[in-house]
Every structure is written in C-alpha cells, then in structure tokens.
Amino acid sequence: MTDKHTWENQEWVQNAKKILEWMATVPQSQSVMFLVRHSHRETIQNHDEMVSGGLTELGKKMALELGKRIPRKGKMQIYTSFVPRCFETAEAIAEGFTQRGGEVLDIDALASLVGPQVIEREVWKNLHPDGKNVTDFVNTWADGLFGEKMEPFVDYQHRLTADTIQRLHSAKSNMIHIHVTHDLALMSAKRMLFNRPLVQGDREPYLGGIGLTFSDSQKVLFTQGEKMLLATE
C-alpha cells in the first residue's frame, strides 16, 4: 500500500484533511497558522513516557504526506515542542512541503508548545497518561482547582497566545506558520479560543488541530470542519 493510499484511507487524518481544505480557500495574500497535534505515536503507558515518546513509522509517513498536501505557496515557519514526537512531526512536514517546492525558513522549539508548567508532579495523577481525559483535565485546571500546583491557566494563555496568534498577526503576508504541539496544549488553546468548558468531542486526533487567519477586523478560526469568527482585541 502506498503512502498516498494510506493517507486517503486512514480515518484519524480526517480532521487534518478538513484543515487543508479550508487552507485552500484562504487568499494567498493572507498568512495562515496551523496549530497541529503531532502525528501517530505508540500508546503511552505511564507519565514518564510523556516526554520521551516518538512517532511510529506510520506517524512519520503521514506527517510527510501532510506536508506534501499543504495547499499554499510561499514560505513556511515551523514551531514545535522539543519532545521527540513533535519534533519528528515538524521535520516530516518540512520535508514534505520542501519536496513540493515550498521553502521552510526554520524549525524553532518553543517551551509553550510543550504545555503548562507543573509545580508539583502529583498533578499528573489527574491526567490519563494517554490523554483520554484531557478535556476534563483542562477544564479542572482552567477552573483553578489545581491551585498553586500548576501554572495558572491565564498565565499559560498569555504565553501560548504570544507564541502563536500574536506571531501570526505580526507576520509578513503570505506566510505559513505551523505549530506542532501536544494534546494538552492544543486543548488548552481551544478552551481559550472557545471561551467555554471543553467537551470530549473537542479532542483532536493525530494531525488534527486549529487553523487561523486574519481577515479585515476579525480572526477566522477553523477546526473540525467548522469556521468561527472571533473579534480581534
């Protein structure tokens, strides 16, 4: 089976396909951002593996296919968590985009894309190692129920916004920003942007995520097949 055939028949890339379809509708003169969950990895069995696990071979191939299919011209800047599965996803996307004639300016590691700072390790006991309850975890954290054991949600919101939305807003026209991150950071971004508690259906599969562009006086957000207009600050 070819990688192209695998991409076309792999169920968990459906949300990634929707983002790419949306990207194709954005005028080439507008910069776009894709905050994307890393590609396919092995099941994480314990919390120690959360910062060490890499991609499966399938994950690497599908990230490469994603890069090949980005329907944009121009230059790309990639930001990533330094955790192996995210950096490997970033490298594969860059390779795919380059293969189709695109230009990748750089791949930069950002601490905010790893996730929030945890002061006391016992907080992780509230999160399933494989992230099955990540939406509930983010809601609990955003409601302040972890107290001083974890970076305040609003502080992390400021850090993540500065590294993503604000970078895009100041970018030159026709730029593509790819931010490769984890389940937790991606769900935190959704909680911030949606301004509501998360539900299980908000969780993204591998290579799913959030697309964003600025149009006139509004932020245009796209995720899971739906477009939302958010007022600019």
Write structural notes for this entry:
The protein has 233 residues and is α/β, with parallel strands linked by helices. 36% of the residues lie in helices and 19% in strands. The protein has helices at residues 3-9, 14-23, 57-69, 84-99, 134-142, 153-163, 165-169, 183-194, and strands spanning 32-37, 75-80, 103-109, 175-181, 209-215, 218-223, 226-231. It has a 7-stranded mixed β-sheet. The longest helix is centred in the middle third of the chain and has 16 residues, at 84-99. The model has no long low-confidence stretch (mean pLDDT 92).
* CATH architecture title: 3-Layer(aba) Sandwich
Estimate the mean pLDDT confidence: 92
Secondary-structure-derived class:
alpha/beta
Beginning-to-end CA distance, first to last residue: 48 Å
Q: From the alpha carbons, calculate the radius of gyration and give it in angstroms.
A: 17 Å
Notable traits:
233 residues; 8 helices; 36% helix; alpha/beta; seven-stranded mixed beta sheet; Rossmann fold
Secondary structure layout plus pairing:
Elements: H1 3-9, H2 14-23, E1 32-37, H3 57-69, E2 75-80, H4 84-99, E3 103-109, H5 134-142, H6 153-163, H7 165-169, E4 175-181, H8 183-194, E5 209-215, E6 218-223, E7 226-231
Parallel strand pairs: 1-4, 2-3, 2-4
Antiparallel strand pairs: 1-5, 5-6, 6-7
Helix pairs in contact: 3-4, 5-8, 6-8
Task: Describe, in short, the structure shown.
With 233 residues, the protein is of the alpha/beta class. Helices cover 36% and strands 19% of the residues. The longest helix has 16 residues, at 84-99.
